[in-house]
Amino acid sequence: MSSTAIPSQLRINLEEPRYDQNTFSGRARHFIITTNPLNLLCTSRQLENAKTTVEKYRNGDELSDLTEDQIWRAKQIYDSAFHPDTKEKMFIVGRMSAQVPMNMTITGCMMTFYRTTPAVIFWQWINQTFNAIVNYTNRSGDHPLSVKQLGASYIIATGGAMTTALGFNRIAHRFPPLIARYVPFSAVAAANCINIPFMRSRELTHGIPVFDENGNRVGDSKKAAKKAISLVVISRIGMATPGMLIPPIIMQRLEKGAFLKRVPWMNAPIQVGLVGVFLLFATPLCCAFFPQKSSMAVSHLEPELQEVIAALPSPPKRVYFNKGL
């Protein structure tokens, strides 16, 4: 089937990913494809062709000249570059396919240059700037964030990360040297708890779109926004954990050896490479922790929204929403 044209009675459902999103393995396969750094090499023409293919197929065109695999490939390219709610092309640095190359570079440098205050400030600023771009690019819902809100969120999140890093750095000398290497991780974890909610603050005040199982929008929910953001925070911290907890142990041993004493400039490249290896697996697997189209019981929504849903001809028991990334 995958190598031949698709009979009209067996149309693909492009509203859902190719692999079963009710299972962790299905979500992992989906995100391994979506976060693949090679997606960044797609040209603007390839992205627009993928978008055209997806939109034509959704509108009922048979596209008999394309195989099932070709249609799915177009959908995968489309998902990697276009926002699921707004349908806009996402800024390249903010796409999930940029997570591994960007994060391995920034994280590796944070973990190499953590001893001096200027270095801590610089790399925490770089990291939070990148996180702000990612959080804004992958926000849930279709409400634009004002420049004022964006600026305030960025300043608060960056300030929180720097304060955490510098505070831990100040007391790290009281502990074994290995503990000091975990200062960047503590700052990243704390910053995620600040950065993501602030960058998506409009969702918390206005709510995010919620839908019934057939994709019909039934309203906007602040409680769904809180759940969506909390799930993303957990995933982001999980994404950073392997690459920021294991390499320090390896580097602690390597720095005592003759190789790094002979070529100390290799410290940063080795750390970047180690982080990259862990991120290559941690990024898709942690994105797969929770379904992208998450859900919650109607009974857990705001009372006023429950009333609106109850008045529908066939009121659903659960609503679904895009949790963002």
Q: What attributes does this structure have?
A:
two-stranded antiparallel ribbon, about 5% strand, about 325 residues, 14 helices, globular, two-stranded antiparallel sheet, mainly alpha
Q: Note the total helix count.
A: 14
Mean pLDDT: 84
Q: Taking strands numbered 1, 2, ... along the chain, how are they ordered across the largest sheet? A: 1-2
* Termini gap: 32 Å
The major sheet is characterized as: 2 strands, antiparallel
Which residues form runs of ≥5 with pLDDT under 50? none
N-to-C series of helices and strands: HHHHHHHHHEEHHHHEHE
Structural class category: mainly alpha
Count of β-strands: 4
Helix content: 55-70%
The proportion of strand residues reads 5-15%
- Globally, the shape reads globular
Provide the gyration radius in Å. Answer: 22 Å
Task: Describe what you observe in this structure.
This protein has 325 residues and is mainly α. Helix content is 60%, strand content 6%. The protein has helices at 24-34, 44-58, 68-81, 99-112, 117-137, 147-172, 177-180, 183-199, 201-206, 222-245, 247-254, 258-262, 267-287, 303-310; strands at 208-211, 217-221, 293-297, 318-322. The strands form 2 sheets. Strands 1-2 form a two-stranded antiparallel sheet. Strands 3-4 form a two-stranded antiparallel ribbon. The chain is globular, with a radius of gyration of 22 Å. 37% of the residues are buried.
